[in-house]
Specification:
The structure is a homotetramer.
Chain A: E1 4-9, H1 13-24, E2 29-35, H2 39-46, E3 53-55, H3 58-63, E4 69-72, H4 79-88, E5 93-96, H5 103-116, E6 121-124, H6 131-141, E7 148-156, H7 166-185, E8 189-196, E9 210-216, E10 221-227, E11 235-242, E12 245-249, E13 255-259, E14 262-266, H8 271-292, E15 299-300, H9 301-319, E16 325-326
Parallel strand pairs in A: 1-2, 1-4, 2-3, 4-5, 5-6, 7-10
Antiparallel strand pairs in A: 6-15, 7-11, 8-9, 8-16, 9-10, 11-12, 13-14
Helix pairs in contact in A: 4-5, 5-9, 7-9
Chain lengths: ~325, ~325, ~325, ~325
């Protein structure tokens, strides 16, 4: 069986990470092409893969005969157009979240996919492939703690990127839970509200941390803490409270150190060590599906639309005093 | 130095527990009198203490020459009148929370105490004496994690008592956090909102679990989960998120068991094992203060009024669609 | 019921700690007398207790009419003579471990106690009163993990005292396990061997850490690590491996801190915070027994003899190449 | 770059697991041939891989032009002969531990490899590729806790296979630590002793659990507990005690469950879930080395010889009353 030849658009942190993962850790994949608006950067990343080509023309990559399938990891604003181009070319695509910055653009992508007659867009909500989340979902589905009533999510990072806005905390960080919670509970998010904590003094003018309340169709309530400038490390928590007990992600640290009057485990500085395995398993699942010519088990373009619709409702609440806002998912 | 002679009003679970603690574990205290509306129950509890008298007349106990100081652990509805009686008799009193079911009654008690010219009412918010909460508060005050921005509290029990109401979850369980959070953060609660999770099917007609949002004057936000029918055990959690890190209560279990494919620690069936040490330390601190004729280090009657005012605001929110409600503390 | 009037011999760290515990935390006890070879130190410690007397004459304290019962916390070399004096005076005594530096002296004390016709010597193996050890023992006795096959004990401290010897690691630190393991397993130690790890460079000429193997009569094997200069903190571990599972002491820390890329719990600098509760509960149990005129539930003088016999066997092994040595407990 | 074509000898649990891992999870590998003494079993395992052939003739597999490199996962007694055959054929080989049941046979394999002029035998001590062990080793090497003085290893399983012997506990289970400890400490094992715990009643006539003491050339002491019938689950522990602190493997569980009065994490029933990632990373490292024509980073045939020499010394001690035995590694 010949390898799936993958072209990766975007050679920033995320794209370079995908190139490396596909090249070194994914069975049955071959990176053949790397595109970036900065051609030197594309070339640098491609250089790590024997035989891979580099370009600053993403559309050329998508059209290239050396490319069977496309990974989109470029700037958020480019996702929709590139996804449409890949669909038009009939090539399966794994697009990083978000599918598009607005639900309107998401709808356009979905309509293009529908016209193509095949479900060939996969969305990079990698938490679905994290082994911890996977065990939590399986235990919940098995009825280990009864029906879910309440969920607590926490997303913390060391520091936010320059120019970060209140909205980005929603669209760039909390959006993961907009996908994960419905996937865990098997119930869509119907209404939301946004609440400011006391803002950290680390970044002037940013309302960070934030707390969101999400209501799912089953009546369960979810609290989400997003704290981009938590300082101490990158950490993700999730606990589902059911009728007979709770299920929570364990501390993923592998080493316990006793030193200097403390027992400790470490936190990574960013999301990459925490979710390295999730990215690998996600890309493997995607490549396997491409190789077998079937829809992938990843999140779909529609999942991406839904998550963006939740984000839009949260931002309405943020701008309107924290009132409860119903989630509107456009018909497609 | 002669022992402080204590009369205990109320011989239910809480009162019997206080009698036992004072008799067996508190230095410098002697239980001399036990009162209960059910005289047989009073006699049974008193029988465990050599020489202790029993009565069904709480006022007689308060007036008795064998009683230097009074513990009130009878029904909530009796707290205010008994506290007033003890103050009138010039005897220091340790009153279980709540000081009174309404803020109006709390105010009457405070006015009586003011007229007495001495601060002789202490309130039983025992979490202030739990060693874990104490370490958390000290670490926070030391600046270990910077200014507090966000707090997460969780209160879970095995099952609610028969006849439990939505309001009782607030006045009987969450009220602990209405005292603890301002004490930890050194900032009063200014506004609140109430939110229902999906209700457990364990009890018909009860909205349990509940989530509260509390805003303190410093701008920090607190989430409180109260789940009376959590089923799995009695558990209290508290985490304060600061600018540079977080502080949280550790699992208080003392034994780790490896058996039957699991590593586990146990949960108690109710609050008594969890807070046995807190009750002991609270009563010891109270007895020490009585013996030395000085105000105690326990929560005050005013703290009790403030906590009741927060509870009233939460109940207004509960009955009004979860809107944000400002806390009004009556002037005294 | 009048308080038990206690005289404390020894006003060093341990004695001062006992005075404070008896005075502040033990119900039904009163410290009336403090003795120390350094009279100023005795006076300083006594000054914290209203009405307590101070002396440099331990025998005067034992004889004093103000003293109902005696705590011995002076230098190890004085324990035997003072215990004999207290027994001769007919006063119950709580003697810190060891009962005496040699088994020969232990035997003399036991013979004196036998002549007195009453079991009035208690020995300060306080781990028996640590709530964690207590839960472990109860779970083991309940058959939670089946018959015990193997036990792992670890005793670590920050640094050893000046002049510390290889032998002191046995008689001062590991000796706790010589009492605790038979008490947990209900089986006496029959043979032992001593093994050096690579010595720490922290102290020249000291063989630290050490590993001991202990065999109990039931066939179970126990490993003991003693590391006086572990540096990072004071820590005690104990795990019993049974036929169907294991039981172990949990981390006793009360606070979890997330900061500086780590999740951590703290270690104390010495044994006092770790075993404060055990000392309190031990002294309370002793005072209760004295007040009721019955033998205490503490370790006995015979338990002290047995532990010293084990220590002697370990030291024989240490000096003889780590060979297996049978424990010889003198007949009394 | 074309994939490395791998032939796998042995289609039992271990071999089938390797076939699956190579096929599904290793980048750049292709399983082309499966051999087993039971041809039906070989065929069944091969059927999961499109195009893979099956045979009952291991030598035919080794000689086949479709095979670039060989994995040996057949019965221990066949390892040496098959490794020699692969070396003779000039094909890189990844042989499961042990290299051979006796050091004498190990020596023969090493001599054959030396004659071949290339280091082409790799040995399957997969713990070297477990991320937890890897972090522990890196932290130790970085000096995080100072020089290692003492190591504690624990290997526990649910139940031993039928016919299991005292010796198998050494050669099949503890042997992992004979490789891991020198690899962690960078110091070879020089002497050993064997000690029986009280035997479990689960299996008649088996001395299980066992405790080993290992001395490394640096003077450090290692304790190893091997308990094949621990009952409660499969668990591996490792703690290295250094001059300034300790390093230990964390609990690898991913899910925490609160239910039925307990907080718990799960244990697997056997080694496969625990070391799935280690096997994947080991095979990936091996395939990468084969593809690049360089020696692998896996354990070598010499490492296998050394581990077998330690095992032989332990068995001498077992049969000779637990005396200390020097490890003799044959010259090659």
């Amino acid at each position: 069986m010949s390898a799936v030849r993958v072209g990766v658009v975007g050679a920033g942190n995320m794209g370079a990470d995908h190139v490396n993962t596909l090249h070194r850790w994914v069975s049955g994949a071959e990176v053949t092409y790397v595109a970036d608006i900065d051609k030197a950067r594309a070339a640098e990343v491609a250089a790590a893969v024997p035989g891979a080509l580099a370009t600053d023309d993403a559309l050329a990559l998508i059209a290239a005969p050396e490319v069977d399938a496309v990974v989109i990891a470029s700037h958020d604003s480019t996702h929709a157009d590139l996804a449409v181009a890949a669909v038009s070319a009939g090539k399966p695509v794994m697009c990083e979240k978000p599918l598009a910055p607005t639900t309107a653009e998401c709808v356009q992508v979905l309509e293009e996919e529908r016209r193509s007659g095949a479900r060939i867009i996969s969305l990079g909500f990698m938490r679905r492939f994290d082994p911890g989340y996977g065990e939590l979902r399986a235990a919940l589905a098995s009825g280990a703690v009864g029906a879910p009533l309440l969920t607590h999510c926490v997303n913390r990072g060391v520091s936010s990127a320059p120019g970060c806005t209140d909205e980005f905390s929603v669209t760039g960080s909390s959006i993961h839970d907009f996908d994960t919670v419905p996937w865990l509970l098997d119930s869509r998010i119907t209404e939301v509200s946004w609440h400011a904590a006391r803002p950290t003094s680390a970044v002037t003018g940013l309302r960070d941390p934030q707390v969101l309340l999400l209501r799912t169709a089953d009546g369960a309530l979810t609290t989400v803490e997003s704290f981009l400038n938590a300082g101490y490390g990158y950490e993700v928590r999730c606990e589902v409270v059911g009728e007979r007990g709770t299920l929570a992600l364990a501390d993923p640290a592998r080493l316990v150190t006793d030193a200097a009057r403390a027992r400790s485990t470490g936190y990574p500085a960013d999301w990459r060590p925490r979710f390295a395995d999730a990215y690998r398993l996600e890309l493997q699942a995607w490549v396997d599906a491409v190789a077998q010519g079937r829809p992938s088990t990843l999140a779909t373009a529609y999942d991406g639309l839904v998550a963006s619709a939740v984000a839009e409702a949260v931002i309405v609440s943020m701008r309107d005093g924290g009132r409860t806002v119903a989630v509107q998912v456009p018909e497609v």
